[in-house]
Amino acid sequence: MSEPTVIESVTVEIGAPARFVWDVLVDYASYPEWNPYTVQVATTLEVGAPIDLTLPNPDGAAGTFVNREHVRVVDPPHHLRYDTGAEIPGIFAVRDQWITPLGEHRCSYRTTDAFSGKHAARMLETTGPWIKAGFDAVAHALKKRAEQLWEA
């Protein structure tokens, strides 16, 4: 089995405590207000539960699509993991979101997605740049949102 291909966002430093940033990250009802890549989320956030991620179309066309994954790790305020399970035949993806405390009122955020499976390389040829851009956009938007709310 070949090694997975990992797409990683930029790491952003956020001027707010890790616990506060975690709460912003998992406030899924507010995603339409700030998240440019994952515009809606439906989940109970319980380990094993589905997490339905509504994303814009990768080709820039109007509309969205739902990507169903499954929650695997919920470790506030540090780590959130979900994966595709058997949802997409020939592609397995594991997404990790990391919040690292850098002091009392500072932390960093980054996300990774590890893709493997028979069709992963072909899928990444067309969507890899879109995924990377989306992850970077989320990191910057989370920083902006958390800092605005923290300062308020």
Automatic annotation (TrEMBL):
SUPFAM superfamilies listed in its UniProt record: Bet v1-like
Stated name of the protein: SRPBCC domain-containing protein
Originating species: Saccharopolyspora hirsuta
